[in-house]
Amino acid sequence: MSKLHKSIEGTRVVSLPAGAKVLYLTKDLELIKRQLAGDLVLRIKDIDPKDLLDDINTDVMTPAWVCFRHQPADIALDAYAGLLDENGERVFGTRALMDGGFSVIVSGQRKGTGSSRETAPQCEKWSGIELVIASSFAPIHARNNVNLGQLMGDYDQLARLEAGEAIPIDEFC
Fold it and tell me: In whole angstroms, what is the distance from residue 24 CA to residue 32 CA?
């Protein structure tokens, strides 16, 4: 069972254990860098959904050069390597997502647009992400998450989790 899944009285639930980390992919890339460095902790109540990155495409999550690796753990080494700042520098360095200790990742609308790369959800899963939160998901990307057993949710569910609620896993399925 994962860090976020547990059983309470025979019902499988999802909850955020103490110390679980949530990464918010904000339009302000400096906020992402600060979260990755461990200098900033955000909560859904602190974020306006319009300030989250929309249309994160699979090329951002796993650029073509990352896809030449065939092991998901190797793909995860350079998760989000295609997210560049205004100077053309990577926001996520090698192992940044993997070493960040995040269990949940949050973005805006239409997560996973672009090509239908299975490597995109793999880079998150093998970096420790167990729950992907977005306003909406591109259909093929959503299916790739389902195929990996990756849970997807919305902002209301995340707010409930951050408030300490245990949510039946069926609500995510």
Answer: 7
CATH of the domain at 100: 3.20.19
Among all chains, which residue has been given the structure tokens 């997210």?
Answer: 83
Tell me if the pTM is above 0.85: yes
* Pairwise CA distance, residues 132 & 110, whole Å: 12
Which CB contacts under 8 angstroms, 24+ apart, belong to 89-98? 91/29, 91/32, 91/33, 91/36, 92/32, 92/36, 96/36, 97/23, 97/36, 97/123, 97/124, 97/127, 97/128, 97/129, 98/126, 98/127, 98/128
Count of domains observed in the chain: 1
pLDDT at 1 over 50: no
